[in-house]
Write a structure and sequence with these properties.
Layout lengths: L2 E6 L4 H6 L1 H10 L3 E7 L4 H7 L4 E4 L20 E4 L5 H8 L6 E2 L15 H11 L24 E4 L11 H13 L4 E5 L4 H11 L6 E3 L6 H9 L3 E5 L2 H9 L3 E4 L5 H4 L7 E4 L20 H4 L3 H9 L17
Parallel strand pairs: 1-2, 1-4, 2-3, 4-5, 6-7, 6-9, 7-8, 9-10, 10-11
Helix pairs in contact: 2-5, 6-7, 6-12
């Protein structure tokens, strides 16, 4: 390694996965540099799976706040890249490292921030501005070598980090029950602290407690990735597991509420179906994505719509996007 560059993206799994195209562009542009990603320690395995980062430097803040400082133990980096935000809150911790260069929005030599822009496009456009070619479609992860714990299962994931993006448990349960009756093997996944929600969905679906995976803690990333990669389908709200299904090429039905899919949804692909009932011609962010009540647009989605969308998904078997290498 001839130098070191630091990237700030101290957010969640979905945020990491939408930044993969930008991270890979940086790796191609600076192949001799060590790429250090500032992100939560819990994402270590997911970060390794991207193949675009050499080292994780743990940092996080409550909610979606920006870490106030970065505990950088090395000499000043050659380059710092802000893939976290668009102002001093995310730029200043990077500037405090005294990098030789800084790529960021909302500074004199940088591009203008656009509020209504897909998250993958946003960070690729930042790099393009500085002469670093970035492809927002370069988002796929390698398929894990390890086998799925439940090959061919349909994954139902009712959780999200905000109530505004959580479709009601009884509706998820009704969908899971209908899919079970149609011959699907259904597994309900849960992140840390979501066990009660997942068990409630399982009860509504007539599924045994053993059908719930996770809850007390997050499902380890390698196990979760193997499950999703080998799944028949994923039914999920606008959260990290939706982005994992996209990255692994697994058919998915994604339910959107306070934020339109044109900002956070999967690329146009028959493997992924989005359900969204925003007002025609309305705002891309009509609701609060971090609100404490289920968004009204999410509530407009019916169980019948979701069941029909799952039945319309293609059956791809082991067909997956062509990617270099495999996740071990």
């Amino acid at each position: 390694m001839t130098g070191r560059l630091v990237v700030l993206r101290a957010l969640g799994l979905g945020d990491l996965l939408t930044a993969v195209p930008a991270l890979r562009a940086l790796r191609r542009a600076f192949p001799e540099h060590e790429t250090v990603l500032v992100a939560p320690a819990r994402l270590a395995d997911a970060v390794a799976a991207t193949g675009a980062v050499d080292r994780l430097l743990p940092a996080e803040a409550p909610g979606r706040a920006v870490p106030a400082r970065i505990d950088w133990p090395w000499p000043p980096p050659d380059l710092a890249v802000d893939l976290h935000g668009n102002g001093p809150l995310s730029r200043d911790p990077l500037r405090a490292l005294n990098p030789a260069g800084l790529l960021a929005y909302a500074q004199p030599d940088g591009p203008a921030w656009q509020a209504d822009e897909h998250e993958r496009d946003r960070w690729c456009r930042l790099l393009d501005w500085y002469g670093i070619a970035a492809d927002p479609t370069d988002l796929h992860l390698p398929v894990p070598d390890r086998p799925s714990p439940l090959p061919g299962a349909t994954v139902v994931h009712p959780g999200a980090d905000a109530a505004a993006r959580r479709w009601p448990a009884e509706r998820f349960g009704a969908v899971a029950n209908a899919l079970r009756a149609a011959g699907h093997q259904v597994v309900v996944t849960a992140g840390a602290g979501e066990g009660a929600l997942a068990r409630l969905v399982a009860r509504h679906a007539g599924l045994p407690p053993s059908s719930v995976l996770g809850g007390r803690a997050d499902v380890p990333f390698e196990e979760l990735a193997a499950l999703v990669a080998g799944a028949r389908a994923v039914v999920v709200g606008d959260t990290g597991l939706a982005h994992l299904a996209t990255a692994l090429g697994t058919p998915s039905v994604v339910l959107f509420g306070p934020v339109a899919p044109r900002l956070w949804g999967p690329p146009a692909d028959p493997r992924h179906r989005v359900l969204w009932h925003g007002d025609p011609g309305g705002a891309a962010r009509p609701g609060d994505a971090h609100g404490d009540r289920t968004d009204e647009r999410l509530l407009r989605i019916t169980t019948a719509e979701v069941i029909d969308a799952v039945h319309r998904l293609p059956r791809l078997g082991r067909d997956r996007p062509a990617v270099a290498g495999r996740l071990r």
